[in-house]
Structures are given as C-alpha cells and as structure tokens.
Design brief:
The protein is an alpha/beta fold and 404 residues long. It has helices spanning 34-47, 65-74, 90-99, 112-119, 123-136, 155-164, 196-213, 220-230, 243-246, 277-281, 284-296, 313-329, 331-353, 356-365, 369-372, 379-403, and strands at residues 6-10, 51-55, 78-83, 103-107, 140-147, 169-174, 247-250, 255-256, 270-271.
Length: 404
C-alpha cells in the first residue's frame, strides 16, 4: 500500500466571500478545537505524512491558524494554506512568514471583471495585493483557478499574472458540483460541445506558456482532459487512483472520507471526535472502505489535488520543490531537519509500537508448536502483528529514501 503523503484539512466552513461556485459557507458546522487539530497533526507526522494543507472556507478566519502552522513546522512537515487573499495584508503576511508557512495558494479566476463577477466586487484587487505581500515577505505563492465557461478563455491571463507576481505554480481545476449544495445552478458552469475545441487550444497555449516561463502547472494529460470533463462528455478515468492511500481529507467536523468526492454515509471512515487519526487511518474500517472502492470502481474526478493520477509530471515538481527547499534552508539545516524527523519517529515507534524485533517476535510467537495445536489461531492478533511490522517497515523505508 502506498504511503500517506498529505493531509488536507478543511479547517472551517466559514468564509468572508459568497462565491457563485461554492456553497460551503452556508454549511454551518461545529469546528474542532486547537488541541484536537494539534493531535491530528501529530498523528499525521507519526504516520509519515510529509505535508499538511489548510483549506476551507477561509482558513485565515481561524484565530489559531498561525499557531497550527507553527505546530506543523515544529513536527517537521511542509505546510500549505489556500486562501482567497482578502485578509493577507502586510501584518498577516508577516505572521505567516514568522509561522514558517511554506506555500500560500491564492484563488484567482481571471481578469478583474471575471474574478469579481464570480467572487464579489473588489476581490480581484485583494487577491493581487495578497500576492504582493507574500512576495514582499519571500513566501512562495501559487495561484488556484477553478475553470468554467466563465473563464476558460482567460487562462493565459492567469499565467501572465503568475509570471508578473512570481507565483511558482498554477493549479487549474474544472468546476465540480460537490461545492454546490443543490443542482439548480451547476449547469451554468459547463461548456457546450462547440466550445471544446476553443478550450483545447487554450490548454495547449497554457502548457506552452508555463513551460516557457518555468511555471509549474497540472500534468499535460490533465489539462487535455478538462474540456471533455467540462462539456460533460466521457473522459478517460481508467487510471488507478492512488489518492485513497497517499492523501487524506478531513472536513471541519472531523469526518474522514476516502476523498472529497466519495462522501456518502457508507464511505465514512471515522470521526476525530470519536477516535484518534492514528487509529482511524490504521483501522480495519479504513481498509474495508478502500477495498470496496477498488472492487466497485472509482467514478473518476478532476480535483486538482489528485491531478498526478493523470501523469508523472508530479515527479519533476517534487524534485524542484526539494531543490528550492534545500536552497532556502541551506544544506546543514535541510539535513538536520530530516535527521531530527527520523530520530523522533524512531523513538516513537520504539516506545509506542515496540522495536521491529519485538514485533517480529510477537508474530513468531503465534506460530510456536504449542499454539498450532489450538483449533483456531487468533486471526485478529496475527493481523495486528503484521500491521505493526508493515508500519515500522514503511517508516524506515521512507526515511532512508529521504536521506538517499
């Protein structure tokens, strides 16, 4: 099973915008406390996650967001935050810098008239101002764009904007109905069959511009599939989605589902209010839900957080990201952080799970001759021992890979 890479936390449904393509702010819910999220972050670190992403709603509406970002960094993980940019003035940018944030994603939908139509009057200027402040405090910025019939003609404008404000990455994502509570207005966001060719030409131009400017964007195949998806035609979703293992979404109520799209009641894996993230991720319920999805088949989606399923371009992005981090931190700090992370994990697994030798001994003990005389071997005990061995093996393989 692939290893957990990132945990995407929708930390609040609250938002200071009322965007046309999103009803999340209308979904009121009780939020988890600071200490609960810190426990989730700590568990994510112990499982082996590399990145925590805070989204929403608008995550900057959480008064504890800077504290939580610092907590992520103190646990030797990357931290990203997705924002509409409205609250990122100089003071906010300074606090983000001091918290150690790695990347801030700013949502921009196109030129001023398009962006303001979709998100509200004056919001484009706020987003650009946020990019300026992030650049001033040397915080890496990226641009996130939800593509629809309203803005697909202006995707090249987004690339030029990224170039001007030194954004390193653009994440395009086609409109998805999961952000709307009803189907009454979703049809407004799709394109007609006659517009498919025009959009295909635009995605080709975007790919060329990004390559020319050195800006990272979605895999080529992902961009090529967007016109088919937005025209509600068949698109190739025959790939095997690794999201079920490498990414974990947690909503503001603490509910954990396999992904943002598969949120039916029978897909609920667990709730942070009832159990720890560590136990939920390693639970039999998690495994059974994933196995059922594998058996029944995944309907396919084009959420940008899972775009690596459409290609291997992500490998290049990963290399570039690590090189940038090495340049930013320096070789000594870069290696020191990895060694610190390795040492803390070893200490945890040695004390909490037991050493690898103890785990193997527990498994071996199950098969001693005196136990084989029993009519039935305790399958649950065997599964538990195997699980412990696999978990320990994964963590050491990950750390060795990071150091190599």
């Amino acid at each position: 099973m692939p290893e957990l890479k990132e945990v995407i936390i929708s930390i609040t449904n609250r938002c200071n915008y009322k965007c046309r393509m999103c009803d999340i702010p209308f979904q009121k819910s009780k939020e988890l406390t600071t200490s609960q999220w810190q426990k989730v972050i700590r568990d994510a670190y112990l499982i082996g996650a590399e990145t925590i992403v805070f989204s929403g709603g608008e995550p900057l509406l959480r008064e504890d967001i800077f504290e939580l970002i610092s907590y992520v960094k103190n646990n030797s993980m990357n931290c990203c935050l997705t924002s509409n940019g409205y609250l990122i003035d100089e003071e906010c940018a300074s606090r983000l810098h001091n918290s150690g944030i790695d990347v801030v994603n700013i949502s921009i939908e196109g030129p001023p008239q398009i962006h303001d139509y979709l998100r509200g009057r004056g919001t484009f200027d706020k987003a650009v101002f946020a990019l300026e402040n992030l650049r001033k405090y040397k915080i890496e910025s990226t641009i996130a764009t939800m593509v629809s019939r309203y803005n697909y003609k202006y995707l090249d404008y987004i690339v030029e904007l990224a170039k001007e404000y030194k954004a390193t990455t653009i994440k395009f994502q086609p409109f998805n109905r999961i952000f709307l509570s009803s189907n009454c207005s979703e049809g407004n966001f799709f394109i007609s069959k006659r517009e498919i060719k025009r959009m295909k030409d635009m995605t080709k131009k975007v790919t060329w511009l990004c390559n020319n400017y050195g800006i990272t964007t979605n895999p080529r195949r992902y961009l090529e599939m967007m016109p088919l998806y937005l025209s509600r035609n068949h698109f190739d979703s025959s790939f095997i989605c690794n999201t079920l293992w490498i990414s974990c979404p947690i909503n503001s109520q603490g509910e954990i589902y396999p992904c943002w799209v598969l949120t039916q009641k029978d897909k609920l894996i667990g709730n942070i209010n009832q159990d720890s993230f560590l136990n939920i991720w390693n639970s039999q319920k998690h495994r059974s839900v994933v196995e059922k999805i594998k058996k029944d088949g995944c309907p396919g989606c084009m959420m940008s957080c899972y775009d690596e399923n459409f290609g291997r371009d992500g490998l290049e992005t990963r290399i570039v990201t690590n090189v940038k981090r090495l340049q930013k931190e320096g070789a000594f700090e870069y290696v020191r952080r990895i060694l610190k992370r390795w040492g803390r994990r070893f200490k945890f697994y040695n004390s909490y799970r037991g050493s690898p030798r103890q785990a193997f001994n527990r498994l071996r003990g199950l098969f001693k001759k005196k136990k084989l005389h029993k009519t039935e071997i305790d399958k649950e005990e065997i599964d538990k021992a195997l699980k412990e061995i696999a978990l320990i093996k994964k963590i050491f393989e990950e750390e060795i890979r990071c150091l190599s």
